C-alpha cells in the first residue's frame, strides 16, 4: 500500500489514524493490534461509531500517538503537520488525568479541522501523549524526550505545579508554548521567567485578589488565619501576603502542622479574642 492509498484509507475511516511508532522511537507503544485493525477497516458502518469506539479504546488502551486529518485533506497540496505533546498523569486519581482530557482534545481538533476557515494550512494534527505521573521528574523527562524526537510544537500540560514549572522553564529555550490547566502556584506568576506558559484557569494569586476585594467591600481590617500548613500552604500564601501588605490590616495566624495534635477548641477561643472573622 503506497502513501496515497494509505491516506485515502485514513480519510475513509473518519480522518483518524491510529498508529504505533517503531519501538526505538518511543518508550510506550501500547495500541493493541485489534484496535488498529478495527479503525483501519474501511467499512462505512464503522464510521458513525468511530467516536464512540475511540472513546472506548482510550479507556482500554493508552495509545502513544493519534493522527487526525482534515476531511478535505489533499495529499498533493502542501500542508503543515501540527504536533501536540500532551503530558498528563495517567492515573485517574487526578482531575486532569489523561483519560479525561485526551478525548476533549481530540474532539476539539476534529471540530477545528472540519471548519475550512480555521487553521487552513494545517492538514494533519498528531497528538503524542506521555504520562507525567504528576511528578517533577517524570513530567520534565517526558517533555525532554518529546523535544528530542521533535514530537511537540506545543505542550498541553503538565498540570502539577512542580512538573509544569520545569517544563515551562526548558520550553523558553526550546521556544515551545506550554498550555496548562493547572500551574496554580504563585511562583509561576513571573511572566518573564515563564514567558511561554499560558495558564488556562485562575491561580492561587487570584484567590488573594478575590479575598482582598471582599475585605474592601466589607471594610474588614482584622483577619485571623487558621490553616493547614502542609496541604494548604500554597493556596493560603498569596492570600496571606495580600492581607499582610495592607497598611490598615491586623493579622492573627495559627498554622496547623503535619502530624501535630490540634486542640481546635483552644485554637478557636484564641482566634475569637483576636479576630472578627
Ligand atoms: C508514579 O508515582 C508513584 C508515586 O507518586 C510511584 O509509586 C510510581 O512508581 C510512579 N510511576 C512511574 C511510572 O514513575
Ligand atoms: C485599608 O487599606 C487599603 C489599602 O491598603 C484600602 O484599600 C482599604 O479601603 C482600607 N480599608 C479600610 C477599612 O480603611
Ligand atoms: C506589597 O506592597 C508593595 C508596595 O506597595 C508592592 O510592591 C508588593 O507587590 C505588594 N505585595 C503583594 C504580595 O501584593
How is this structure best described in words?
This protein has two domains: 63-201, Rossmann fold, CATH 3.40.50; 205-274, no CATH class. 40% of the residues lie in helices and 18% in strands. The protein is built from nine helices and nine strands. The strands form two sheets. A seven-stranded mixed sheet has the order 1-2-4-3-5-6-7, sandwiched between helices. The protein has a two-stranded parallel sheet with strand order 8-9. The longest helix has 17 residues, at 98-114. Keywords: Membrane, Transmembrane, Transmembrane helix.
Task: Detail the topology: elements first, then pairings.
Elements: H1 3-12, E1 16-18, H2 33-40, H3 50-60, E2 65-69, E3 80-88, H4 98-114, E4 122-131, H5 138-149, E5 154-156, H6 161-174, E6 178-180, E7 197-199, H7 204-218, E8 222-228, H8 233-244, E9 250-256, H9 264-274
Parallel strand pairs: 3-4, 3-5, 5-6, 6-7, 8-9
Antiparallel strand pairs: 1-2, 2-4
This protein binds 2-acetamido-2-deoxy-beta-D-glucopyranose (3 copies).
Amino acid at each position: 500500500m503506497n502513501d496515497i492509498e494509505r491516506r485515502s484509507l485514513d480519510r475513509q475511516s473518519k480522518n483518524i489514524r491510529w498508529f504505533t511508532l517503531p519501538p526505538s522511537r518511543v518508550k510506550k507503544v501500547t495500541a493493541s493490534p485489534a484496535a488498529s485493525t478495527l479503525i483501519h477497516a474501511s467499512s462505512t458502518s464503522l464510521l458513525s461509531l468511530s467516536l464512540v469506539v475511540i472513546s472506548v479504546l482510550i479507556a482500554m488502551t493508552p495509545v502513544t500517538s493519534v493522527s487526525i486529518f482534515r476531511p478535505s485533506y489533499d495529499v498533493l497540496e502542501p500542508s503543515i503537520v501540527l504536533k501536540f505533546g500532551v503530558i498528563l498523569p495517567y492515573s485517574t486519581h487526578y482531575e486532569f488525568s489523561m483519560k479525561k482530557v485526551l478525548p476533549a482534545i481530540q474532539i476539539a481538533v476534529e471540530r477545528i479541522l472540519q471548519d475550512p476557515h480555521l487553521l487552513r494550512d494545517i492538514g494533519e494534527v498528531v497528538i503524542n501523549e506521555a504520562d507525567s505521573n504528576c511528578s517533577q521528574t517524570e513530567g520534565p523527562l517526558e517533555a525532554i524526550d518529546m523535544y528530542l524526537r521533535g514530537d511537540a510544537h506545543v505542550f498541553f500540560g503538565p498540570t502539577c505545579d512542580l512538573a509544569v514549572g520545569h517544563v515551562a522553564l526548558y520550553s523558553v529555550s526550546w521556544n515551545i508554548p506550554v498550555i496548562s490547566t493547572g500551574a496554580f502556584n504563585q511562583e509561576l506568576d513571573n511572566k518573564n521567567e515563564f514567558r511561554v506558559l499560558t495558564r488556562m484557569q485562575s491561580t492561587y494569586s487570584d484567590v488573594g485578589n478575590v479575598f482582598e476585594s471582599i475585605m474592601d467591600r466589607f471594610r474588614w481590617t482584622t483577619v485571623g488565619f487558621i490553616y493547614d500548613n502542609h496541604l494548604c500552604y500554597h493556596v493560603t500564601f498569596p492570600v496571606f501576603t495580600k492581607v499582610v501588605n495592607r497598611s490598615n490590616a491586623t493579622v492573627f495566624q495559627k498554622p496547623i502542622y503535619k502530624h501535630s495534635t490540634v486542640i481546635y477548641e483552644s485554637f478557636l477561643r484564641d482566634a475569637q479574642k483576636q479576630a472578627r472573622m
